[in-house]
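Appendix B. One record, verbatim.
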Amino acid sequence: MIVRLEIDHSKITFGEIATTIGKSGGDIIALDVIRAGKSKTIRDITFKVQDALVTQTIVEALGKLGGVKVVNISDKTFLMHLGGKIEIAPKVPIKNRDDLSHVYTPGVAKICSAIYEQPSRAFSLTIKRNTIAVVSDGTAVLGLGNLGGLGAIPVMEGKALLFKQLADVDAFPICLDTQDTEEIIRTIKNIAPVFGGINLEDIAAPRCFEIERRLSEELDIPVFHDDQHGTAVVILAGLINSMKIVGKKLEDCKVVICGVGAAGVACTQLLVAAGVRNVIGVDVNGAITSTERYDNEVWNEYASYTNPNKETGSLSEVIKGADIFIGVSRANLLKVEDVKQMAPDAIVFAMANPMPEIDPEEAEPYVRIMATGRSDYPNQINNVLCFPGIFRGVLDCRATRITEQMKLAAAHAIASVVKEHELNEQYIVPTVFNSEVVEKVKHAVTQAAYDSGVARKEHNVME
């Protein structure tokens, strides 16, 4: 935490302030003078605390000191977001009038004409070749719900930062002030010319299904809803390695997926593409089955390719004998009693954030492999393992879309980063900082794009 204080030297010494912070539970780690005067000084004091309650105690104690005025309180997270987390920087310098005439008028006119005559030149002569749009309507921001376009900006900025740092992909946050499906589709289509791909983010179901489907059909660049497919790819990667540990075949496993929304549907589709034959989706009314008719058309379609044995009932009923549980729903839906009913060597991926479907400590005695979406537990299933490498690959080969074959290739590539001698119950997927991940995913996705016939750039041709 960082507290900015205005200190009246005639009334108090800095030693008294430091003592107050220490006695209240703070550990001072940095001091910065913001403005020094003869009688008063403004200082930023950075200190570590156990939790927010300690910070409040410190601030209250400082407020009681004579000669001290608390100007502002910040933490590291807020400071890292001041002014935003990304910026646009020029690639070529403009030092004189001649430089200006080449990058802008009159020289730029012949570049415009060249692209008009041959539109594919936009990939080599503009930022289109390496730029994607990270688009959100703010209807499903993290686990916070509908925060709108403004509330979504910090997440989309963060996504853009990760794209650049991990895969050298230039990404820009596009946060829309509309939640109308047709208007979202129309807007994205209208801005698409400058981008080489579209990453949809934090758009609520069922709207997200229609938006992605329509854009994929109507645009000639890849459209990828990361909340759906990024989650699915990394989950599949974790399961590929989990199978090696438990000695089972994925296609023989009974899989129960809790939460048949955007992520749940995408996970199911990818698991089915990977060969899994028995997937049961469970939502608020219990297991989704073809024996029922639902108001939600997505569920009716989902029922047509899942739950082959037409099991019915609640999560606690259909989880009996399941080899794998995947939670993409909300906290505390899976009980210890449910886990005890699963097959031997049970695998539980409880992905709800910030609180998973079951407390990992409660589940651990009864499962062989436990994974969550959190960074403070082993086996974090994190989309960051997926989207940078996928977009690096599709941009490099100028893919028109992302196929199931490309997603499967990405999952196997992520799984392959964990070497056989490293693989264990606490380490089934690599960390997001493993430098091999992006490279392996990029190459696997690029090859799959050529195999799928969706790559436009000639194979192995360097520009």
